[in-house]
Every structure is written in structure tokens, then in C-alpha cells.
Structure to design on (474 residues):
């Protein structure tokens, strides 16, 4: 009896894992508390043209604390207002999530994607695992060379569904695309949003040092591929070991059902519609500086053309689009709540104070550890400034001259910036990981559980590669 009683007590004491909403809202609350503790401060900024665009750049040596009247720390009511304001400020991203999911829902309902993926898997036979390094490399090159992240959002449902269709799970497919693009963004070779801006601010020759960054990128891709493939092998042997075991993916394809779909003329035309749209999108993003509005508009046109090819009525298009949006509603709202963290920090004007504090602390770090400390600092900075261009503009004017003082080359300081910014993009809830989790239907806590071991490995690699860069005089 005592054993049974103890077991029941243990069950009652077991604390359930909080929902992602609760976790992120708790972080907003913590930041609200810190807004009363961290003093407000600011650097002076100047408008500088960098690579053809005017940007606000912090001026080194101009940091000053602000009067309390200039700061707006978050009180009780302001906390809940910040959650609302976060959703307002993130409206563009939220509607991208809705538009991508609604469009993809329509394409799935036409049967074209089922036919396309089924044909692909039949062609691959037992060699489907080769898709992992191929797809990851393609996404990584996009992130590394062109700085593509949001441009790949429309691919997320398809690759997540592909992971399920291959007999693995949603996390397997999600990892292929997310690790690919974000590892590529981190291992930036010619990324205009990280290396391009940082080198311009630091007055280093534009796109110099590319060879070493290519080596870093290749190593990151190899390690990430191995991690994904090992996970895939584990869950293929025992599906119960899946990190999302028992959860039905919102983008799932049943492999046995795929055989029912053939590449008919209608399906071929719909896939051509998708291909043409992606070509136009890439051109617009790279050559015409398109933004989220253009992306969403193009996706809406693509979905309407697909519906017309499938001979749907306008009412059916609306119904299926709304059904597609429903499955990622939680992700859209979560993105807005996470934005509340930035709202709280901006209102309290504590972002520059954090930058100043960390930069000042670096001056007292032993020279042998200065490069590692810069990597750590840039990783922390990305929590507060979840934008590559914003982080470069705010931190590099301070970190570049600081590198001179610490005896570290400015090229190494830039490497620390791109590594710190890139990896934490898929770690901190203030960054893009919340958005892509929302599109994929995978909870943030499940991603953390899956990713944290790999995150530790990659961070250790970053430390080693930064250390080697110092030794070789990079």
C-alpha cells in the first residue's frame, strides 16, 4: 500500500512542462522586472550610407545614461500592453506566417505536392537519406551567400511534410531546412546583412577573409548533417524515441497515401506554378529589394493560380486558405508575444546599456580570452537586438575599436559577431526561431530539447574556430 501511495504522491507532485506561451510570457515578465533594475542609457547615432543604404550607426565613446523621465519601465498594466504591442509590431511577420500556411494548405489540398513528393521518393528508392546533405547545403548556400532566411519560409511546410513522408518525423524535416538556412547565415561567406555590413563599419576590405569562412561553413554543415542523420536513424529503428512522438504534424504526408497520387497534367501545371513563383520571388528579393508585402502578395497569386488550375470555385479557395491559416494561429500569436520582449526593452531604453556594460567588461578580460569573450558577448547581444543588421549597426562601431585595444584583429571581431548572431537566431525566443516554429507547428520547447545538445557542439566549434583565427592572424 505504501508503494502505491508513494507512486500517487509522485504523480501529483510531478510538474507539467509549461506551454510555450507561458515560457515566452514569463521571459517578457522577467524583462519587465529588469526594466526597473537596469538603468536607461543610449549611444549617439549617426546616419551612414553602407552598401547603398542609409543606416543608423552607434558612435563609439558617446554612451550616456538617461534621465529617469526618458525611460518607461514596465509596470503591471504595461506588461499586458507590451504583449498587445508585440503583436502589433510583429504584424508583418504574423501575416507572412498566415500567408505561407494558407497558401501551402491550398497546394496540399490540390494533391500536387503529394504527387511531387511521392514521385521523388519513388525515384530515390532507398537512397532518400542523400536528400539531407543536398537540401541542407542548398539552404545553407542561400543563407551564407545571399542572407536568405524569410525567403525560405514558404518551403518549411513542404520540407516538414517530406520528413514525415520519408518515415521519420516532423522534427527531422524541420531540422533539414532550419539548420540548413541558419547555419548558412551563421557561416556567412558573402552574406550582405552580416559580413557585408560589419566589414564596412569596421573598415575592413569588403568580403575579405572569405576562404576561412568557407572552411567554417563546410565544417558546420557536416556536423549538422551528421546530427540530423543520427537522429533519423535512431527514430527509424524506434519511432518511440522521436522528440515529437505521439504528436500529429500539421504538415504530415502519409507515405502509403502518396502512392495514390500521380503526376497528372494538372499536378504538373500546379508544380510549374510553384516553380515560376519561386523564380520570380528570388529575383524580386535579390534584385528589387522586395519585402514581406511583396512575398505575401506573390504567394496569394500563386495559390489563386493553383486553385484555378484545379478548377476550384472562389469560395473553395477561401475555405481552404482559412483552414490552412488555422493550423498556425498559435504560432502567429506566439511570435507577437515574443516581440513583447523587445517592446519592454525599447520602452525602458536598456538595450544600449547592456551593450555598454558588456563592452566595458571585455576591456578587463585577459588578452588570451578576449576573442572568446567577444563571441560570448555577441551571442548575448542577439537576445536584445534580434536583427543582424541592427546588431551590426549597434555593436560593431564599439567592438571594432575595442578589438584594437584587446590585440584582436577586426576580422576576428567580425567573425565573433557573425557566429554569435547566427547560432543564437535559433536559440533565443526573441529571434527567428519563434517564427519558424510557428510555421512548422513544432513547439519551441520541443525544439530546444532537440537542439540544445547540437547547440553546445556548434558553440564549442565556434570557440575553436575563433581561437584558430587568432593564432593564424586572420
Amino acid at each position: 500500500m505504501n508503494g502505491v501511495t508513494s507512486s500517487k504522491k509522485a504523480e501529483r507532485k510531478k510538474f507539467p512542462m509549461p506551454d510555450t506561451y507561458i515560457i515566452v510570457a514569463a521571459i517578457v515578465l522577467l524583462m519587465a522586472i529588469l526594466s526597473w533594475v537596469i538603468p536607461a542609457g543610449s549611444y549617439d547615432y549617426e546616419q551612414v550610407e553602407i552598401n547603398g543604404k542609409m543606416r543608423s550607426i552607434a558612435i563609439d565613446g558617446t554612451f550616456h545614461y538617461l534621465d529617469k523621465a526618458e525611460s518607461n519601465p514596465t509596470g503591471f498594466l504595461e506588461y499586458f500592453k507590451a504583449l498587445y504591442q508585440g503583436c502589433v509590431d510583429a504584424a508583418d511577420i504574423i501575416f507572412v506566417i498566415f500567408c505561407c500556411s494558407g497558401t501551402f494548405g491550398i497546394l496540399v489540398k490540390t494533391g500536387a505536392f503529394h504527387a511531387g513528393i511521392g514521385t521523388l521518393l519513388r525515384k530515390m528508392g532507398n537512397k532518400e537519406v542523400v536528400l539531407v546533405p543536398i537540401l541542407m547545403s542548398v539552404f545553407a548556400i542561400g543563407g551564407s551567400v545571399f542572407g536568405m532566411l524569410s525567403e525560405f519560409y514558404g518551403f518549411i511546410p513542404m520540407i516538414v511534410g517530406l520528413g514525415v513522408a520519408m518515415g521519420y518525423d516532423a522534427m527531422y524535416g524541420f531540422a533539414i531546412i532550419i539548420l540548413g538556412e541558419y547555419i548558412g547565415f551563421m557561416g556567412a561567406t558573402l552574406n550582405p546583412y552580416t559580413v557585408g555590413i560589419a566589414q564596412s563599419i569596421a573598415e575592413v576590405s569588403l568580403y575579405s577573409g572569405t576562404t576561412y569562412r568557407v572552411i567554417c561553413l563546410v565544417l558546420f554543415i557536416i556536423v549538422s548533417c551528421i546530427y540530423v542523420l543520427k537522429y533519423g536513424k535512431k527514430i527509424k529503428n524506434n519511432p518511440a524515441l522521436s522528440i515529437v512522438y505521439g504528436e500529429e504534424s500539421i504538415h504530415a504526408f502519409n507515405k502509403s497515401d502518396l502512392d495514390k497520387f500521380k503526376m497528372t497534367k494538372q499536378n504538373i501545371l500546379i508544380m510549374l506554378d510553384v516553380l515560376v513563383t519561386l523564380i520570380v520571388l528570388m529575383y524580386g528579393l535579390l534584385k528589387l529589394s522586395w519585402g514581406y508585402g511583396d512575398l505575401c502578395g506573390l504567394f496569394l497569386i500563386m495559390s489563386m493560380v493553383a486553385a484555378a488550375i484545379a478548377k476550384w470555385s472562389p469560395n473553395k479557395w477561401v475555405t481552404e486558405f482559412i483552414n490552412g491559416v488555422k493550423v498556425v494561429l498559435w504560432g502567429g500569436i506566439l511570435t507577437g508575444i515574443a516581440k513583447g520582449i523587445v517592446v519592454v526593452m525599447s520602452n525602458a531604453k536598456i538595450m544600449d546599456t547592456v551593450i555598454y556594460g558588456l563592452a566595458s567588461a571585455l576591456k578587463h578580460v585577459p588578452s588570451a580570452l578576449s576573442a572568446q569573450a567577444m563571441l560570448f558577448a555577441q551571442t548575448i547581444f542577439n537576445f536584445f537586438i534580434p536583427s543582424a543588421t541592427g546588431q551590426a549597426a549597434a555593436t560593431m562601431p564599439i567592438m571594432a575599436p575595442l578589438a584594437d585595444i584587446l590585440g584582436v584583429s577586426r576580422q576576428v571581431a567580425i567573425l565573433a559577431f557573425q557566429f554569435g548572431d547566427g547560432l543564437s537566431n535559433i536559440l533565443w525566443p526573441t529571434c527567428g526561431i519563434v517564427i519558424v516554429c510557428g510555421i512548422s507547428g513544432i513547439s519551441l520547447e520541443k525544439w530546444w530539447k532537440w537542439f540544445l545538445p547540437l547547440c553546445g557542439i556548434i558553440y564549442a566549434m565556434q570557440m575553436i574556430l575563433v581561437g584558430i583565427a587568432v593564432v593564424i592572424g586572420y
